C-alpha cells in the first residue's frame, strides 16, 4: 500500500529552488517586431462565458469571441505569499518575473516566512524591479504604450511603468509614469495629471489632451497622452460615446500612433487593459461584467486585425486573476438542465445600465419618479418593498454625512421585507449594492465572494508562426519569460535591476551624501564628491550635475521604509570624471 507523505515547508522550498533557474531561461521563441498584451482585469473563465451567452442572447448568430480561434491554454497567477492574486503583484509578475505581495507595484516583495510560495532574496525587499516595458524602451528603443479604462496610475498600468510598495500612492506613481518615456498613454484620469506634469510632457514632444475625444482621430504626432474623466472611465454601457471613447477606439489610436515615426522599425510593446470587468465583478454586477468584457473583446478584434495585416505582431490575451466566484446557475433554479436561456439570464440583456450607472441616475431623480426611471432602465418594475428600499437609500445618498437622518434611514431599511434579495438588511449597504441585488434576483447567476479568486485564467495567443504561440498550462512567471523571449531581451529583469535600480548607498559609497525633504515625494538626494555636486528629486529623471541638467534613463524611486533612493549605477561614473 502506498503511504501518503506530507511535504514539509523545507521540502517545498527545496523543490522551488531546483525549479527556480527555469524561470530565468527565456522561452525558445522567435522574437516579434510588435508585442501586444491585452489583460481583462479580474476576469474568471465564468465571466467570459457570461459575456458569450449575453452576446448570443442578443443575437443567436453571435456565438464566438474574437480570440476564440487562438485560445491556447491557461495561466495560474498568484502572489509571492498567497495563492489568490491581486492586480498589483500579478501583472508585476508578468512584467518582471517575480511574484510579489498584495499592493506592491513593480517592487520586490519581503519574505513572509512560511507563507512564501517562491524563494526570495531578502536583500532585495522593497527594491524596484525593472519591467519589460522599461527594458525594451531603454535597450531597444522600442516604442511603448498603455491603454486602460481605469485611471492611468492604477495597479496594472503602473506595474509596467512605475514602482511602489503601495499601489494607492499615486503621488509617487504618477511622476514616474510621466518621466519614464512611455510614448502613448490613453485612458482615465484627466483629473490626476497636474499642470507641472502636463508642461513636462509637452516640453518633451507629447500631445497632451484632456477630455478631448477628437484627439484620438485628429492628432498625428508620435507621442500622446489622452485622458478622460477625473478618474476611471464610465462603464461602457453607461457611457456617452460622443464624449468618452470605447476601449476599441483607444486601442486603434494607440496602435496607429506606435506603428509610425522614426522608431517604427524597432517595433512596439503595448499593454491594453479592460480594467472595469474587475470592478463589476467586485460589485457582483452581471450587467457590468458581461458588457465590459464584450467592450474588451472589441478591442481584441482591433489588435488582431492589425496583427494579421502586419505579419510580425504577436497578440496575447489573458487576465491577471479571477474575481467573484461567479456561477452561471443557482441553487434557486428548480431544474438546472431544464432552465431555458431566458430563465437563466432573466432580463440581463435588456437592462440598460450597470448597477452603479443606474444608482447614480436614481440619485439625480426626484423621489416620486424613482419607480419609473428604474423600470425604464432595468426593463422590469421593482416590487413595493424594493421601491421603498430604493427611495430610502436614495435619500441616504443625499443626506448629510454622519447625520442623524442617515442612521434613521438605515434603521427603516432594516424593517423592510427583502428576503428574496441577496441583500443584508441588517447591514444595509449603498444604493448600488441594492440595485445589484435586485438585478441578481431576476437571474440564476450567483457569486461566492466580492473579492478575488484563485482559479487559473484563460490564455489566447495569436502569432504569425505557430511556434511563436504560448500553449498549455503556464504560470505567471512563465508568461513573463515568454514575453521576454518575444521582445528579444536576453538579460533578466533582476540583472537589469542591479544596473538601473541600485541603492544610493552602493552607488555613492565613500561620497558625501545627504537626503533632504520631509515627505517621500519631497525628498531630494544630494551628493558631493571631488568638486562635483549632484542632486535629484524623488520619482524624477531630471537631476542636476554641477548646476546643469542631468537626465537619468529612468525616474528615481525613493523608498521611505529603507530611506534609500534607487537609481542607475552609472551616475557614479559621472561624479568620478
Structural class call reads: alpha/beta
Terminal CA distance reads 73 Å
Quaternary state of the chains: single chain
User: Could you tell me the strand content as a percent range?
Assistant: 15-25%
**What's the overall average pLDDT, rounded?**
94
Model regions low in confidence, pLDDT < 50 over at least 5 residues: 1-26
The biggest beta sheet is recorded as: 10 strands, mixed
Number of discrete helical segments: 21
Strand order of the largest sheet: 5-6-4-3-7-1-8-13-2-14
Strand elements, count: 22
Shape from CA axes?
globular
Percentage of residues assigned to helices: 25-40%
Rg, Å, rounded: 25 Å
Q: Concise description?
A:
The protein is an alpha/beta fold. It contains 21 helices and 22 strands.
Structure report:
With 577 residues, the chain is of the alpha/beta class. The chain has 21 helices and 22 strands. Helix 3 packs parallel to helix 5. The longest helix is centred in the middle third of the chain and has 25 residues, at 286-310. The relative contact order is 0.16.
Amino acid at each position: 500500500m502506498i503511504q501518503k507523505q506530507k511535504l514539509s515547508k523545507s521540502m517545498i522550498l527545496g523543490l522551488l529552488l531546483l525549479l527556480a533557474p527555469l524561470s530565468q531561461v527565456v522561452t525558445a521563441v522567435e522574437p516579434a517586431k510588435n508585442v501586444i498584451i491585452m489583460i481583462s482585469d479580474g476576469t474568471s473563465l465564468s465571466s467570459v462565458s457570461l459575456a458569450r451567452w449575453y452576446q448570443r442572447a442578443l443575437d443567436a448568430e453571435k456565438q464566438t469571441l474574437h480570440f476564440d480561434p487562438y485560445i491556447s491554454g491557461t495561466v495560474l497567477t498568484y502572489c509571492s505569499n498567497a495563492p489568490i492574486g491581486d492586480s498589483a503583484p500579478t501583472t508585476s509578475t508578468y512584467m518582471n518575473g517575480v511574484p510579489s505581495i498584495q499592493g506592491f507595484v513593480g517592487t520586490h516583495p519581503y519574505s513572509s516566512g512560511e507563507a512564501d510560495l517562491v524563494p526570495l532574496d531578502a536583500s532585495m525587499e522593497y527594491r524596484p524591479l525593472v519591467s519589460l516595458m522599461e527594458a525594451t524602451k531603454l535597450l531597444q528603443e522600442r516604442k511603448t504604450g498603455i491603454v486602460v479604462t481605469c485611471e492611468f496610475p492604477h495597479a496594472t498600468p503602473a506595474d509596467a511603468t512605475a514602482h511602489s510598495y503601495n499601489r494607492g500612492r499615486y503621488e509617487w506613481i504618477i511622476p514616474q509614469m510621466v518621466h519614464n518615456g512611455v510614448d502613448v498613454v490613453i485612458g482615465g484620469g484627466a483629473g490626476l495629471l497636474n499642470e507641472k506634469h502636463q508642461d513636462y510632457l509637452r516640453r518633451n514632444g507629447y500631445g497632451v489632451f484632456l477630455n478631448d475625444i477628437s484627439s484620438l482621430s485628429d492628432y498625428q504626432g508620435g507621442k500622446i497622452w489622452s485622458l478622460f474623466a477625473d478618474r476611471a472611465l464610465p462603464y461602457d454601457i453607461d457611457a456617452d460615446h460622443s464624449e468618452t471613447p470605447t476601449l476599441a477606439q483607444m486601442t486603434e489610436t494607440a496602435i496607429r500612433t506606435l506603428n509610425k515615426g522614426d522608431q517604427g522599425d524597432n517595433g512596439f510593446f503595448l499593454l491594453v487593459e479592460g480594467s472595469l470587468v474587475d470592478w463589476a465583478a467586485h460589485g457582483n454586477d452581471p450587467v457590468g461584467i458581461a458588457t465590459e468584457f464584450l467592450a474588451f473583446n472589441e478591442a481584441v478584434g482591433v489588435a488582431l486585425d492589425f496583427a494579421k495585416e502586419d505579419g510580425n505582431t504577436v497578440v496575447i490575451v489573458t487576465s491577471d486573476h479571477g474575481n467573484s466566484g461567479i456561477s452561471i446557475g443557482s441553487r434557486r433554479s428548480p431544474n438546472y438542465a431544464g432552465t431555458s436561456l431566458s430563465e437563466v439570464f432573466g432580463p440581463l440583456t435588456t437592462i440598460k445600465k450597470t448597477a452603479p450607472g443606474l444608482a447614480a441616475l436614481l440619485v439625480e431623480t426626484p423621489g416620486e419618479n424613482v419607480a419609473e426611471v428604474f423600470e425604464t432602465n432595468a426593463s422590469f418594475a421593482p416590487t413595493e418593498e424594493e421601491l421603498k428600499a430604493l427611495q430610502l437609500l436614495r435619500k441616504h445618498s443625499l443626506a448629510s454625512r454622519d447625520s442623524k437622518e442617515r442612521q434613521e434611514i438605515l434603521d427603516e431599511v432594516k424593517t423592510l421585507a427583502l428576503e428574496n434579495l441577496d441583500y443584508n438588511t441588517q447591514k444595509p449597504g449603498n444604493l448600488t449594492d441594492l440595485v445589484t441585488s435586485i438585478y441578481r434576483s431576476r437571474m440564476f447567476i450567483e457569486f461566492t465572494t466580492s473579492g478575488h479568486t484563485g482559479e487559473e485564467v484563460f490564455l489566447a495567443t495569436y502569432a504569425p508562426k505557430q511556434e511563436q504561440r504560448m500553449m498549455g498550462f503556464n504560470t505567471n512567471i512563465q508568461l513573463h519569460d515568454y514575453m521576454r523571449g518575444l521582445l528579444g531581451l536576453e538579460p533578466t529583469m533582476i540583472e537589469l535591476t542591479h544596473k538601473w535600480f541600485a541603492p544610493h548607498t552602493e552607488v555613492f559609497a565613500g561620497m558625501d551624501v545627504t537626503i533632504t525633504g520631509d515627505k517621500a515625494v519631497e525628498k531630494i538626494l544630494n551628493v558631493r564628491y571631488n568638486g562635483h555636486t549632484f542632486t535629484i528629486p524623488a520619482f524624477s529623471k531630471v537631476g542636476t550635475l554641477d548646476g546643469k541638467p542631468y537626465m537619468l534613463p529612468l525616474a528615481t524611486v525613493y523608498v521611505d521604509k529603507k530611506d534609500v533612493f534607487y537609481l542607475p549605477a552609472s551616475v557614479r561614473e559621472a561624479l568620478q570624471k
